[in-house]
Amino acid sequence: MKLTILPLCLLALLFTFSIQTFATTFVVNLTTDQFDFFIGDGLCDADQVTAGDQCTLRAAIQEANSTVGLDVINFAIPGSGLQTIQLNTGLPTITNPVLIDGYSQPGASPNTLPIGNDAVFSIEIRQNGLGVNTFVISGGSSTLKGLLLNRGTGGGAENGTMVTFITNGGNRIEGCWFGLNPDGTATSLRISTGISNASSGNVIGGLSPSVRNVISNLNSAIRNSSPSGGTSGTNSVIQNNYIGTDPSGTQARNILMNAIEVGRSSIVGGAVQNARNIIAGFGNTGILADGSEITIQNNYIGVAADGSTRLGGGDVGGGGIGIAATNNNLFIGNFNNVIANNIIARFGTGINLTGGGNSGTVVRGNSIGVVSDGSLNQSGQGISVGSTFSSKNIIGGANNLTTGSCTGDCNIITNFNKGIVITNGTGHQILGNSIYSNTDLGIDLDNDGVTPNDVGDPDTGANDLQNFPFIDTVTSGSTRVTGRFFSTANQTFRLEFFNNPVADASGYGEGQIYIGAINVTTDATGRADFNQTFAYNSPVGSFVTSTATNLTTLNTSEFSFAIQVQAPTAASVTVSGRVITAQGRGIRSVIVIMTDSNGNTRTATSSSSGYYRFTDVPAGETYIFTARGKRFSFRQNSQVLSVMEDTDDINFVASDQSVFSVN
Questions:
Q1: Please, what's the largest Cα pairwise distance for the chain?
Q2: Which of 5, 114, 170, 609 is surrounded by the most beta carbons within 10 Å?
């Protein structure tokens, strides 16, 4: 007998074709729930009696798991309208990458609306089992799209999960609805969790309207399944979803607990508007972050898709955003000059930074409490900072601030009981914010009311109970502020000043309109005086307050006592100067004209040494000073000055070409 020896390359080729390496498309054409008759034969067929492939979703997943490469599961179930697949147990764990596309069923179509949702579903999957998980995905790189996912008629407790990611990540959920009927109403029965995120790098939603998910009427919408430092939920992207609302984003469809939980290095929202998540109707916290390097940006939390209507959520013991554990470099709002804010409705707490050891969190450019249902929050806080080992969090900042408005790093914090409360830790900076219309203090260190200043500022507590400035006087026009500051000796501080239509009931704060800031350095006794004029025009009768931030320790104080703005007094001041040649010699007999804002004029004549003087000049007004001579001209013929105090340097210098008489 003669043996034929095949070349090794041919053997390898035959071996390759013995294993299916190309993606296979399986088409589900049954709503029933049978197992595949012969797993691994490459055919999705749950019925060996009926002619042709009789493919159920369960059988399709079983066959997809037995192949190599990304498979596709489409739908072509006979009949029009919604086709419902009833499951009595969880589907097989998906161990190989697969795309399950509900939009492939005739009659289905994805959302096309930039706001709202007009998706049409033709595939509904109902889980009738008790406490089971519908989809469990371990193979990674899989996509679920165009599915209506609900709980069926099974009894028992509200437990189980519709989609669970484990082991391998890189999965996507696109254009699915959870917990809702096809018309957007809530199903009569809810399941515990919509998505359980226990792997890394998963994307829920995306920037296109077609991939927007609606996840509502659940105990938890998106859950981080292994918190406190594990890989669960890390590097996730959650964008452009409606969570806890109806498909239009205008009505709440309640989430009983947390809406979103994420792990480290994740993004919730993004730098562009179409990354925004609409998050409402939650019973505890809108976004609960557990990890570091998390970005939460440009979301509406407790706010409808119109950006102005408040939707329920977080009223009892909850809040908009919460930090669960140790987090470094977590950014909420504007980061690296991205102008895209979270709008957070008035809740029990707007942003809660009280998780253990929270440090380095930056909260910038958010509007917190602006959207309100009109009710007063008698116990809540706009921002709460206070884990025992927390330090160096930044609320606001000094970047891109605009006098008279809230821009750049500025946060708006309003309609709470207290604006910002710091109960523990040091180095927490509060800079450039707009804090107003809170029923109690705008800033409270140690959460115990106004903290009096102490000599030398040696006391300890939250932010080392940093002393605040004393404002002595404030006059309108270009706002002039005088006062004193007492704190640690030989240190430099940033003093920020704010205008308020009314003062806080305590007399201290708040700080609605940012006027400006100056740096002062204390002397050996710990004192620094200030006399500063800002361009912002504070109305007479309004109030000005101030805070102090130690630029070494980074501690920010509470608001100072509010001082009412007064009109400039008519007290006399003296304005003087000299008329001189280019070489500095005085010119005599030059007429200097002073004109006020009403056109009234006064004149003075330069002396033999070139000096002139106006006395009894009303302070607080702006004047034009003009020099006139018959035989010469001046480099600067007119000068404009807002007169606030005695001034002796309004000088006029003759041009080199002038012919003049000098002393």
A1: 135
A2: 170
Domain covering 376-567 in this structure, CATH number: 2.60.40.10
Closest CA to 197 of 158, 159, 237, 149: 237
This prediction has a pTM of: 0.81
638, 640, 645, 651 alpha-carbon torsion, rounded to 10°: -30
Asked if the domains at 376-567 and 572-653 fall in one CATH topology, the answer is yes
The whole-angstrom distance between residue 532's C-alpha and the CA centroid of its chain comes to 33
Give residue limits of the domains in the chain: 376-567, 572-653
Q: How far is CA 281 from CA 217, 244, 254, in A?
A: 9, 5, 4
What span, in angstroms and rounded, lies between the C-alpha atoms of 384 and 600? Answer: 56
Residue partners of 52: CB distance under 8 A and separation at least 6: none
**pLDDT tens for each residue of 442-497:** 999 999 999 999 999 999 999 999 999 999 999 998 899 999 999 999 999 999 99
Residue listed under structure tokens 């910038």: 364
Phi, psi for residue 64 in degrees, rounded to 5: -60, -35
Residue 172: C-alpha distances to residues 175, 236, 237, 274, 619 (Å): 10, 10, 9, 17, 68
Strands 480-486 and 470-475: antiparallel
Point out the least confidently predicted range of 152-156, 311-315, 628-632. 152-156
Whether the CB-CB separation of 319 and 351 falls below 8 Å is answered with yes
Sign, CA torsion 145/298/362/286: negative
Residue listed under structure tokens 């979803």: 241
638-643 vs 621-628, strand pairing mode:
antiparallel
> 3-class SS at 548?
strand
Beta bridge mates, 83: 123
Q: Which residues pair with 255 in a beta bridge?
A: 218, 282
Does the CA dihedral 220-226-229-234 come out positive or negative?
Answer: negative
Cα gap 43→40, rounded to integer Å: 8
Contact yes or no for 378/387 (Cβ under 8 A):
no
Q: What are 28-63's pLDDT values in tens digits?
A: 999 999 999 999 999 999 988 888 889 999 999 999
CATH number at 572-653: 2.60.40.1120
For residue 654, give both structure tokens. Answer: 């003759």
Helices vs. strands in the chain: H and E counts, helices first:
2, 50
